[in-house]
Each structure stands twice: as C-alpha cells, then as structure tokens.
Amino acid sequence: MEDPSLNQQTSTVSRGSLRELANVAVPLVLSCGSLSIMHVVDRIFLTWWSTDAVAAALPAGLIQWTIMSIAMGKAMYVNTFVAQYEGANQRQRVSEAVWQGVYLALIWGGLLLLCAPFAGIFFHWIGHTAEVQALEAEYFSILCLGSGPALLSAVLSCFYTGRGQTMVVMWVNLTSVLVNMLLDYCLIFGAGPFPALGIRGAAIATVTANVSTLLLYLFIMLARHEARRYGLFNHWRFNRELFMRLIRYGFPNGLLYFIDIIGFTLFIVLVGRIGKIELAATTIAFNLNSLAFVPMMGVGTAVMTLVGKRIGEGRPQLAVTTTWKAFAVSATYMLLFAVIYVGFPELLLRPYAPEVMTEDFLKVKQAAIVLLRFAALFSFFDAMVVVFGSAIRGAGDTRFCMIYTLLTGWAIMVIPTFLVWRYADVGEKLFGSWVACTSYLGVLGIGYLIRFLAGHWKQMRVIEDHFPEPTAEDSEQPAEGALT
C-alpha cells in the first residue's frame, strides 16, 4: 500500500506554495547535486591520472551525450505526460505513457550501440592530439554500452518525478553515485584486486552505475507494489496514438537537448583545437560550474512537474506562482556560486592539483581562474534558462524552445567561436570563445523569460481533453488521489 505518511504530508501542503515546490525540488536538487559531485570527482581522479585523460574525458563524454540527447530528451519528456495525467487523475494513462517511453528507450538504446565501432574514425576527424584522440575513442566506445540502461532509467524515473515522489529518485541516484565513485577510484588507479585502467576504468564505472540505477528502479517498483496499483503490467501494450503524441512533443524536447549539447560540444571541440592547455582549463571550469548548474536541473524538473500537474488540473495561474518562486530561489543560489567563483578560485582548483606540480598544470590553473569569472557572469542567466524554459516545456511549448535554442546557439555561440578560432590571435582565442558562450546564455535566458511572460503556454497541454472509459481491469485497481 501507499505510504500513509506521504499522503498525509502532501495533503496538507498548499498548491502553489513554496513548501510544495521544496517538497518536490529539494530531493531532485540533492539528486542532481550528487551527480554533479560524481562528475567532479571523476574529473579530479582523471586529472591525477594524466592531463591527457582529463582533456579527453569532457569532449568524449559530451559527444556521447550529444548522440544520446535526442532519445534522452524524448525519454525525459515522459515526465510531463505523467504529471499532466496525474493532475487529471488518469492513472491508466500514466502507466501507458511510461510504457511508450520504455519502447522508445529500447529502440534508441539499440541504435546507439552501433556508434561504438566508429569512435576511432570520428575522433581522428576532430583533430585533437594523437594521445588525446586514442583516449577519447576508448572512453566514448565504452560509454555507448551504457546508453540503453541510462535511457530506461530516465523513463522509469519519470514515473516518480511526474507524480511528485522525488525522494525515490534521490535515493536511487545517491546509491548510483556511490557505486560510480567507488568503482572510479578502484578501476582508474587499480585499488585492491582491480587493475589500473585509467580512463577506461572511469567509463566502465559509469556504465556499471547506469545498470545499477535501472535495477534499483525495477526493484523499488515491485517492492512497493506500485506496478499493481498503477496497473503497469495491465497497460504494457504499444499504444500508437499515445506513442506518436510522445514523439510529437518529446521530439522537439529531444532536439532541444541535441541542439544545446551539440552547440557546447562544438564549442569544446573548437577550444580543443586551440591547444591541450586551453581544453583542460575549459574542462575544469565547466566541471566546477556543474556544481552550481547541475543541481539547478533538479529545480527545472520540479518546475516542469508542478506546471504539468497544474495544467492537468486546469489551474495554470498556480503554475505561474510556482515558477516565480522557483526563479527567486534559483537566482539567489546561482549568485552565491558566482561570488565563490570570483572570490575563491584557488580553493576550488586545489583538488585538481597533482601531487607533483607540473608546468602544464600551472598554465591550466591560470587559464581556469579567468574562465571561472565567465562562469560567475553567466550563472544568473543559467537560472533563467532552467526555470522559465522548464515551465513552458511543462505545458507543452517544446517547439519554440527547440527553434529558439537552435537560432541563438549557432548564431551567437558556435559560429562566432569558429570565427575566433579561425582568425583571432592565439592569445585571444580562448577569451573570445568564452565571450561567445556567455553571450549565448544571456540571450537564451532573456528569450525564455519573454516567452513565459507572453503566456501562450497557459492554453497548451499534451494530454487529451477527453479520456476513454476505464476498463474492467482499471476498475479493480484501488482508488488513489493525486499527489500534490
């Protein structure tokens, strides 16, 4: 049965209140924060292993994520369907939406395995140094093996986030992070009975963590009897109409992920062509910025969930209230990190220092200090991008987000970065590239704010206006009120 303490807690929370936002967002922030720490630790371990390894990890990881991003964006958009169906108290459709996401994840996960054999050719074409190329190809090939489990885990997580049960997601991710960090240390450096595999060990640890995440979700669903209560095993059949609606709204969301990530991937690739020092400094700066930005993704998922539920309930004005409260909290949080980036860069960079200081690392450190000032500058706009972008996508406004991100990403960041790399003096290339990146985030955040204020999203929804009559199987399911 459902945990009665959960129902009691959620029933006393006022819709649209800061407490409701906190109940949904805080576990997701902690969950995303743990993932951020995991990536930071991963990069620190690789920095200790070699400069080439840490220089290879970010571009290879970004490219693998770029290839997976369209599928991941569609898989994660199951959250909006679950939230709106939950708001409309349609539990059968919640289950059907999850299953359509599972089918999508299985198809794309299989296709992504085909990318691994071409890693060497692809990274040779990118043109980084030969040593970095070999490590990039190795890291990328292994990560591709974990694409399927990662996509399936994302879909199953939406079953919980869309219903506001974010504590489950938090504990699953915390467990996965611990598995990854432990295996990272053992497999990179060869602790105990494990061989020292360097960057290959880091990739194996990530794939193992993805598989453990999937198994944990399956175990929890069965142990808590949620599969029975929501009729998950009764509504497993392929639903062409719902699947196509998931594609209709989820595909622009996936393209949004793809466009955004490929823009930053091309940015990293172009910076890597400037030199190994510049690439390592950029890797570290983005890695440290993830300490602030990645937890913000938890707030974004919470906003998307609550906006979706309010749309399903037919109360969009409450969604407006929630969004502004989320932005106030997020902006304050990001500005705090901006102060840390500017005021304490030496402290932040200290864990990356190798035991024996090298001339290369001193150059990397000097460049990273400058780049952290850029991170401080665009952190406020990051809050706007995450909160207002998530709000309008939670209602179904995915097409605008896709088109606007495409236009601004290429016009303001990718093309100017290419021109800087191609024509600027050597000493100005890194600085000019980061000016383009910062400008892009500023324009993107302001554009999402304007779209949110326009209010078109209030009339949108991804679910049907009318629902089919419940079947005999559905009528046998115990009644359960929607969580708030």
Task: Report what the structure shows.
This protein has 484 residues and is mainly α. The protein has 2 domains: 15-238, no CATH class; 251-462, no CATH class. It is built from 19 helices and no strands. It is globular and about 65 Å long.
Architecture blueprint of SSEs:
Layout: H1 4-11, H2 18-49, H3 51-76, H4 78-87, H5 91-112, H6 119-126, H7 130-145, H8 147-161, H9 166-189, H10 199-223, H11 226-229, H12 240-274, H13 276-313, H14 316-343, H15 345-349, H16 359-395, H17 398-423, H18 426-454, H19 472-475
Helix pairs in contact: 2-3, 2-9, 2-13, 3-5, 3-7, 3-8, 3-12, 3-13, 4-5, 4-8, 4-13, 5-8, 6-7, 7-10, 8-10, 9-10, 12-13, 12-17, 12-18, 13-14, 13-16, 14-16, 16-18, 17-18
GO molecular function: antiporter activity; xenobiotic transmembrane transporter activity
Organism: Gimesia panareensis
InterPro entries: MATE_fam, MATE_MdtK, MdtK-like
